[in-house]
Amino acid sequence: MKKDVIIIGGGAAGLTAAIYASRANLNPVVLAGPLPGGLLTQTSDVENFPGFPDAVNGYELMFKFQQQAEKFGAKIINETVQSVKLTEGGPHELVLGNGETAECRALIIATGSTPRWLGLPSEEKFLNKGVSACATCDGAFYRNVPVVVVGGGDSAMEEATFLTHFASVVHLVHRRNAFRASKIMAERVKANPKIKIHWNSAVVEIFGNTDVDGVEIRDVVTGEQTRIPCKGYFAALGHIPNTGLFKGQLAMNEAGYIELKGASSCTSMAGVFCAGDCADHVYRQAITAAGMGARAAIDAERWLAE
């Protein structure tokens, strides 16, 4: 398979790039991977995507993205990428999970990121039933009820502070006796009367019937276990960018996010563009990912024209 444009990733960024590239008659192929639609398909109601005042199911929203891309001629293939060989200015060679090879002049990377979890079976059991990794996405669902946030870095400080706008109380659970977060953010959390900090504590279980009713924490010093009633559990342990395929070939920051040039989608290699959460560690929203996808497709179109 030889194409002008191949897009790796079928989430908001990848599918928006596909819409724009298709309308530019570039006939892109989207390698959507094992989870077509990306992380948003694991979200129940999405209330903050423009155009849907009554909320929309995450899977339904991504299905509409895909339908729109296919309407203009994009080809969606639910296949993974096993390896990539990037060449300055192209062509770029991809080996797919099924063993087939693909080649493209311009490559758009929209592989997203994966939230870090503690690894508890109950996190998976209650996912979207009280368990979340995004306060900005889901915080408004927890008005006037207690919630728990797990973590001690800047992400945890941001999530806990944001949730105080909705929750009756925010229990912040951290396994050490000091935060890793920047001093100013940590002090802001400590000064907030709606945040109760549980030092030297680890979550050992999330309990409930159909959805979350609380968490059980263990004091790592004394071993004592305590139950905290809550309706929401937020893992704020950071994200892992899905960029392993490109290590050693593209410039990345220390955390593995692909670095972009200025306000563009251009990576360190000509002919390779990037969009969404594999480059964005700040906003991580469907709407910002979609905007980055549009930018990547426009950049790729102009680069190909040149």
Number of helices: 7
Query: Whole-number radius of gyration?
Result: 21 Å
Distance between the termini: 23 Å
The low-pLDDT segments are none
Kindly state the mean pLDDT as a whole number? 95
Strands, count: 19
Structural class by SSE content:
alpha/beta
Helix content, binned percent: 10-25%
Note the overall shape: elongated
Q: Topology as H/E string? A: EHEEEHEEEEEHEHEHEHEEEEEEEH
Query: How much beta, percentage-wise?
Result: 25-35%
The major β-sheet equals: 7 strands, mixed
Topology, element by element:
Layout (H helix, E strand, L loop, with lengths): L1 E7 L3 H12 L5 E3 L13 E2 L9 E2 H14 L3 E3 L3 E5 L6 E5 L4 E9 L3 E3 L5 H5 L5 E2 L2 H4 L7 E5 L3 H10 L5 E5 L9 H8 L4 E4 L2 E8 L3 E8 L5 E5 L2 E4 L3 E3 L30 E3 L11 H20 L1
Parallel strand pairs: 1-2, 1-8, 2-5, 8-19, 10-17, 11-12, 11-17, 12-13
Antiparallel strand pairs: 3-4, 6-7, 7-8, 9-18, 14-15, 15-16
Helix pairs in contact: 1-2, 1-7, 5-6
A few lines on this structure:
By secondary structure, the protein is an alpha/beta fold. Helix 1 packs parallel to helix 2, helix 1 packs parallel to helix 7 and helix 5 packs parallel to helix 6. It is elongated, with a radius of gyration of 21 Å.
